[in-house]
Specification:
The chain is an alpha/beta fold. The protein has two domains: about 290 residues, Glycoside hydrolase 38, N terminal domain (7-stranded beta/alpha barrel); about 110 residues, Families 57/38 glycoside transferase, middle domain (immunoglobulin/albumin-binding domain-like), CATH 1.20.1430. It is about 50% helix and about 10% strand. Strands 1, 2, 3, 4, 5, 6, 7, 8 and 9 form a nine-stranded mixed beta sheet that branches.
């Protein structure tokens, strides 16, 4: 009999990047890399666990923006085109490195991996990765959490309660459209909790969510068991807390597993090393060098001199790190069980894209972890959050504190001197949508289309990604442009709706470019009961 539980939670998210107006859209490469390096490897890992009869549980969230891109035929075809160019590059690399045995071995490995991904995408999954993921929920192995429509950072949108309600309502409706059922749990973007958001979740029949560690440890009254059991808010929603120890071992740039010197070096790619003329067909059409995924070096150490990557060493290290993670969790659970009046739960949430994309060996580590927990020990049982609440329905009542998993644990990543200008415009935009929802309760025809698009544009402007990118200095011009473009479209739509002079041709163009949430209800921004 187990002494405690481990809930592994993977949050998969990318901002909505779909640019049919460009022949080669730079930002769409984020999606292509994540499909090849994270989402398909994760699906193949889950398939292998099923085939081998391994009993497992996993919690996943696919953000609505990511899921919308994954089911979009236009982006599916663009991804396939990119993948086939990389397969062609693989053949060229095998030829180029034929006199360099170590590099040639790696070129052949990457070529095989790309061909396997190609076969899985086309033949096994018929291009629809969301449907492939859905199967595991049907089988009871994976619980999928809903999330906010465009990953809006809810604590900073809460100046207008309608903005929070709309992000949650549209996200849940999208989940129901994809999965054919209402969700039980909800991923708060960036683990952004504030007192009161739990009531909005409960109004939509959401039973549980996750907060950052100090959101629970600083709750009032102080929880008796810290983050190792959930707490109930006065609304009735359960809030689980992130375990700091399991997070540190995976996330920490100093102590975390991904920094091991035997693992593959992420920042060394042939796209930057080789002559432009050779690599030109496989980078952006404007000669912007982009990662190809062909990375031949290992981390080696804190040095510019990198040694050749040895997959066998990395795989062995991933197995050792899985064993180490389990041993540490066993000690942790045994200690907690000895001082608690119930079995503890360790909640370990991570960005899904860490596994495979940022940390190449992450899927190997996760696969080994799940298999070893299933077969080699009795202390820990994998569990989903809903299963835990079903087994342990009685928990302490407390109010979590405002928190996030961003830098320093609160809001400064998304609200600082570089990006604070965004919010007055977002708040004004919400007021615009509230007014439109109130004045046009049952529109028809072109007016209805315009109202739906206005709601889409505001939701996309609210994405937390833009403030994050501005703060980090990663493509801040693009993030600024996206924010301004969506808000300008919202205001033009408002003026055309109110003036009864809707430009149908322009509306059709932006509908085709930003076609997310086809069933959206603009009344999601209504102040009335939903």
């Amino acid at each position: 009999m187990e002494k405690g539980y481990l809930a592994i939670v993977l949050h998969a998210h990318l901002p909505y990047v779909r640019h049919p107006e460009y022949e080669d859209a730079l930002e769409e490469y984020w999606l292509y890399e994540a499909i090849t390096e994270t989402y398909i490897p994760l699906l193949l890992m889950l398939e292998s666990l099923l085939e081998d009869g391994v009993d497992f549980r996993l919690t996943l969230s696919l953000s609505p923006t990511l899921a919308s891109m994954l089911v979009d035929p236009f982006l599916q075809q663009r991804y396939l085109n990119r993948l086939e160019r990389l397969i062609e590059l693989g053949q060229k690399e095998i030829k180029r490195t034929r006199l360099q045995p170590e590099l040639n071995t790696l070129a052949r490995m990457y070529s095989r991996q790309l061909q396997n991904v190609h076969a899985a995408f086309l033949n096994r999954y018929k291009r629809n990765l969301v449907q492939a993921f859905k199967r595991f929920q049907t089988l009871g192995k994976v619980e999928f959490l809903a999330s906010a429509a465009t990953h809006g950072f809810l604590p900073l949108l809460a100046v207008n309660p309608a903005a929070v309600r709309a992000q949650i309502r549209v996200g849940i409706d999208h989940y129901q459209h994809l999965f054919g059922q209402r969700p039980k749990g909800f991923w708060l973007p960036e683990c952004g909790y504030y007192p009161g958001v739990d009531q909005v979740l409960m109004d939509q029949s959401i039973r549980h969510t996750i907060a950052e560690t100090h959101g629970i440890t600083r709750a009032q009254p102080r929880p008796k068991h810290g983050v190792y059991t959930p707490i109930y808010c006065s609304s009735g929603a359960a809030v689980f807390g992130r375990d700091p120890e399991s997070s540190r071992q995976v996330w920490s740039s100093v102590d975390g597993y991904p920094g091991d010197y035997d693992y593959r070096e992420f920042y060394r790619d042939i796209a930057y090393d080789l002559d432009l003329e050779y690599i030109k067909p496989y980078i952006h059409q404007d000669n912007i060098r982009l990662d190809s995924g062909f990375k031949y070096f290992r981390i080696t150490g804190k040095t510019n001199h990198k040694e050749i990557y040895v997959p066998e060493w990395a795989e062995n290290k991933a197995e050792l790190h899985a064993e180490n993670f389990i041993a540490n969790r066993q000690k942790q659970i045994e200690h907690l069980a000895s001082v608690m009046d119930r079995k503890p739960i360790i909640v370990a949430p991570y960005d899904a894209e860490l596994f495979g994309h940022w940390w190449h060996e992450g899927p190997i580590w996760l696969n080994g972890l799940i298999r070893k927990i299933s077969a080699e020990q009795k202390t820990i049982r994998l569990i989903t959050l809903s299963e835990y609440l079903a087994e342990h329905p009685v928990n302490q009542v407390a109010t979590p504190c405002t928190s996030s998993w961003g830098y320093n644990g609160f809001h400064e990543t998304w609200l600082n001197g570089s990006n604070d200008w965004i919010y007055r415009h977002l708040h004004q935009g919400t007021q615009v949508m509230e007014k439109l929802a109130r004045h046009y309760p049952q529109p028809e025809g072109l007016t209805l289309r315009a109202l739906k698009q206005a709601a889409r544009e505001l939701l996309m402007a609210q994405a937390s990604d833009w403030a994050f990118m501005i703060n980090n200095g990663t493509m801040p011009e693009y993030a600024t442009r996206r924010t301004k473009t969506h808000l300008l479209r919202l205001n033009r739509l408002k003026n055309e709706i109110e003036g009864r002079m809707i430009d149908e041709e322009w509306l059709a163009t932006i509908e085709s470019h930003n076609n997310i949430f086809p069933q959206i209800d603009h009344q999601s921004f209504s102040t009335e009961a939903y």
